[in-house]
């Protein structure tokens, strides 16, 4: 059996999870969807409503409690843009599938928990996780929880990367259309490059972080992200490479101005 799980603690995150689940169910009728939560969700939206287990975090504790043989975990700030198709078939070959994080030269994304890991093995984004029930996967989830506790960091991605680096787990790196974080990639893709499938954007929860405007879909998010990209280049005093010029030099200069040494 295969299905999707959300972990939603508190009313604000349950609201986001419900919106995401509606988009998922509209495009994938028949797919089972569960939620781990501390509140009562909208009746009939989820197939099962489950209490959040005890653990390092609500998310890490819930991942191992999925009833599905094949599970797609989604953060609450996601929307389904297209049918998932044969995504679960990746698990015919692998125990885990996950996409790279973005902003990979930043100090935040290069942070680890003790392992010496090459730049070319960056943090993964743990907001979209596809995994199957197996002994190796169960060991990985247990080790991840332990490593997260030991690290003492708020973010679970540094410990995830380091545990994955030293693990023998069979895993696959999903293409970005299954975890679309940098939505301005849509501006660069040609017509048959990709099929945007899962949007995962912090813009969907920006109203929880003090923003006056709530953004609810890709149509609203894409122009906001275009403006934010241009503003970041201006803040660094560098020309936006999308407008021409030496793009490689611009990205290297951006690293230097942020205090990150290229490799």
Walk me through what this model shows.
The chain has 263 residues and is of the alpha/beta class. It folds into two domains: 2-178, Spore Coat Polysaccharide Biosynthesis Protein SpsA, Chain A, CATH 3.90.550.10; 218-263, no CATH class. Helix content is 32%, strand content 17%. The chain has seven helices and nine strands. The protein has helices at 11-27, 58-63, 107-110, 135-151, 157-166, 218-235, 247-257, and strands at 2-8, 32-37, 48-50, 70-74, 78-80, 96-100, 124-132, 171-173, 198-200. The strands form two sheets. The chain has a seven-stranded mixed β-sheet, with helices on both faces. It has a two-stranded antiparallel sheet with strand order 5-9. Helix 1 (11-27) links the parallel strand 1 and strand 2. Helix 4 crosses helix 5 (157-166). The longest helix is centred in the last third of the chain and has 18 residues, at 218-235. It is globular, with a radius of gyration of 19 Å. The N and C termini lie far apart (44 Å).
Quick structural overview:
By secondary structure, the protein is of the alpha/beta class. It contains seven helices and nine strands.
Low-confidence stretches: none
In CATH terms, what is the fold-level topology of the largest domain? Spore Coat Polysaccharide Biosynthesis Protein SpsA, Chain A
Q: State the name of the first-level CATH class of the largest domain.
A: Alpha Beta
Cα-to-Cα separation, first versus last residue:
44 Å
Please estimate the helix content: 25-40%
**Named CATH architecture of the largest domain:** Alpha-Beta Complex
Shape call: globular
Strand order of the largest sheet: 3-2-1-4-7-6-8
Number of domains: 2
Order of helices and strands: EHEEHEEEHEHHEEHH
Number of helices: 7
Overall radius of gyration: 19 Å
CATH superfamily of the largest domain: Spore Coat Polysaccharide Biosynthesis Protein SpsA, Chain A
Mean pLDDT: 94
Content-based structural category: alpha/beta
Largest sheet: 7 strands, mixed
Q: Strand fraction band?
A: 15-25%
How many strand segments?
A: 9
